[in-house]
Write a structure and sequence with these properties.
The chain is α+β, with helices and mostly antiparallel strands. Helices cover about 40% and strands about 20% of the residues. The chain has eleven helices and ten strands. Strands 1, 4, 5, 6, 7, 8, 9 and 10 form an eight-stranded mixed beta sheet that branches. A two-stranded antiparallel ribbon has the order 2-3. A hairpin with a 2-residue loop joins strand 7 and strand 8. The structure holds phenylalanine. Phenylalanine (PHE) binds next to strand 9 and strand 10.
């Protein structure tokens, strides 16, 4: 009987079979449990003989069950490992993939184009004070750009520092001239803010500032730099720029720059000469020679250092290059719009 149970355990094929044997022998109404109960009705002499025998039997069966259980579990694991293989060389399922936003893409393109011309990328805070955003740039208290309807101001501070959301990237000119020693060649792309909203204006928009400070810089350097940049950006050599006299408090002289477009197969394309009659001009940026007073405001000697600066709307550039017509759509995060212009899969 003893040997029967042990050989049955050793040949149990499954964990369920083994459990059935355990219940049948060691369970509440199992055979070995019944044997243990008989000890109570025995004489002390009988118990002295039968007690150790029955306990030994129980221990042998318990140990055999534990042993068999372990080997059945090992075998089950082996079987699972053998069948559940994972092929690491299979391609993953194609889920949603992120892509680069047109504005970010244009910023990258600008950084690359200007890097080739020796320009570094500079940055400044979007929350500025009115000294960097206006005063240092020679914009007097009475200038219309300071009017509340254009500028987002923060509540007054105890220390009197007037904080605002920068209305252009030009304060980065000031910050760069105050920390870097000339010669300076930087572009400063980033977010700018004005309280304005329609198809071509959003309260937040993007500009890129350009600044060169060195000895003997003149308008010719500005014109060549802008032409080189615009040709590289629109990837055409036949682009014509038009510099129109203009006014900015921080540049003198100042020029607004238009880029020539022509009609090709009913589409407005940047490039070609509008003077030929089939096209027109689009304004793309403001520029000029840095005002000597601005150079002096930054602690540099304007008799030694001259320079040029320009400020250009990045969203505008993206619209012109990729043929988009509503600026507001740039910031809607609508995947259909991105797909339409090829910016998302
Ligand atoms: N900051 C000007 C604007 O936002 C653009 C500009 C920059 C003009 C640098 C001249 C020089 O309109």
């Amino acid at each position: 009987e003893n040997q029967d149970a042990l050989s049955e355990i050793a040949s149990a094929a499954t964990l369920a079979d083994l459990e059935a044997i355990r219940v049948r022998t060691l369970g509440k109404s199992g055979t070995i449990t019944a044997l243990l109960k008989t000890l109570g009705g025995m004489t002390p002499e009988q118990r002295q003989v039968e007690g150790p025998r029955i306990h030994a039997l129980r221990e042998a069966v318990t140990a055999a069950i534990a042993d068999r259980k372990e080997s059945l579990e090992d075998a089950a694991l082996e079987a699972r490992l053998a069948t559940e293989t994972l092929d690491m060389s299979l391609p993953v399922s194609a889920g949603m993939q992120g892509s680069v936003h047109p504005v970010a893409q244009v910023m990258d393109e600008l950084a690359e184009i200007f890097a080739d011309l020796g320009f570094a990328v500079a940055t400044g805070p979007e929350i500025e004070d009115d000294w960097h955003n206006f005063t240092a740039l020679n914009i007097p208290e009475t200038h219309p750009a300071r009017a509340m309807h254009d500028t987002f101001y923060f509540p007054d501070r105890e220390d009197g520092r007037k904080m605002l959301l920068r209305t252009h990237t030009s304060p980065v000119q000031i910050r760069t001239m105050m920390t870097d020693k000339p010669p300076i060649r930087i572009i400063a792309p980033g977010r700018t803010y004005r309280s304005d909203s329609d198809a071509t204006h959003t309260p937040m928009f993007h500009q890129v500032e350009g600044l060169v400070i060195d000895r003997g810089i003149h308008m010719g350097h500005l014109k060549w730099t802008l032409e080189t940049f615009v040709k590289a950006f629109f990837e055409r050599d036949d682009i014509v720029l038009r510099l129109r006299p203009s006014f900015f408090p921080f540049t003198e002289p100042s020029a607004e720059v238009d880029v020539g477009f022509t009609w090709e197969k009913g589409r407005r394309v940047i490039g070609g000469d509008p003077a030929a009659g089939n096209g027109g001009w689009m304004e793309i940026l403001g520029s000029g020679m840095v005002h000597p007073r601005v150079i002096a405001n930054c602690g540099l000697d304007p008799d030694e250092w001259q320079g040029f600066a320009f400020g250009c709307g990045i969203d505008r550039l993206a619209m012109l290059k990729y043929g988009m017509d509503d600026l507001r759509a740039f910031f809607d995060g609508d995947l259909r719009w991105l797909r339409h212009y090829g910016f998302a899969a």
